[in-house]
Each structure stands twice: as structure tokens, then as C-alpha cells.
Write a structure and sequence with these properties.
With 129 residues, the chain is mostly helical. The chain folds into 2 domains: 72 residues, no CATH class; 56 residues, no CATH class. Helix content is 77%, strand content 0%. The two termini are 22 Å apart.
Length: 129
């Protein structure tokens, strides 16, 4: 999100969306807020490799937003979002299996309740909004 203003301007240029003064003010305010929060968090643990990973993630979000606006798929948004969640889960499954063995997971009631909340409230209801 630290690249909010360039992202907004780039998106406006790529999808021919008019960048109005209220939108520019919102982008500038958001960018200033991110800079203010991140400035307080600067320290030894902010390695260039971590910042590069964040930059790559933001570039992916921007690319997805621009492509979605340009292509405008015919499928329902619910189907698209579900497909994205399945693809992300499949892509992350091998990484998760290598990074954290399943034997270290403790299936406690609080863990299962948290998973149910993430699946139903965040993913399920989030797709319906």
C-alpha cells in the first residue's frame, strides 16, 4: 500500500479511468498514512529482501486490478473469487507443508473456531459483499 499514489495514477492511465480531485486527495491521504505508520516501524528487522517481497506483492495486486478492469470477465464475481481462493490455496499448500509440518499443528477448539471464522465469515461472507 506504500505505493498508493503511483498505483492510482498508473491504474487511471492503464484503464482510462478519470482521476478526479477527490480520488487524488484520497490516494494522497492514504499514501501519507502508510508513510507515517511505516516511518515509526523502521528498524533492524526491515531487511531489503522483506521490502522487495512487499513490493512484488503490491505489483501483483496492481497487475490483477488492471487486468481485471481491462478484461472484464463474463463469469460471476463469486465464481471468480472462489477460483482465486482455490488457486491460492493450491499454490501455497506445498510451501506450507515444507515450512511447517502438519504434526506441529494442534487442533484445539480455539484453533478450529478460528478456522471456521476465517472460512465462513471472512471468505464466505466476504465473497458475498
Amino acid at each position: 500500500m506504500g505505493l498508493g499514489v503511483p498505483r492510482g495514477q498508473g491504474r487511471a492511465a492503464l484503464v482510462a479511468e478519470r482521476l478526479t480531485w477527490p480520488k487524488l486527495a484520497g490516494l494522497t491521504t492514504s499514501f501519507a498514512g502508510v508513510v507515517w505508520v511505516m516511518w515509526r516501524r523502521l528498524g533492524e528487522d526491515n531487511r531489503p529482501s522483506a521490502m522487495t517481497l512487499v513490493l512484488v506483492a503490491i505489483a501483483g495486486l496492481v497487475a490483477g486490478t488492471v487486468l481485471f478492469e481491462r478484461w472484464q470477465p463474463a463469469e460471476d464475481l463469486l465464481v471468480l473469487n472462489g477460483g482465486q481462493l482455490v488457486a491460492a490455496g493450491l499454490a501455497l499448500a506445498p510451501v506450507t507443508a515444507l515450512a511447517e509440518p502438519l504434526s506441529t499443528v494442534r487442533f484445539t477448539p480455539s484453533f478450529l473456531l478460528a478456522r471456521a471464522y476465517l472460512i465462513v465469515a471472512v471468505s464466505g461472507v466476504g465473497m458475498m459483499i
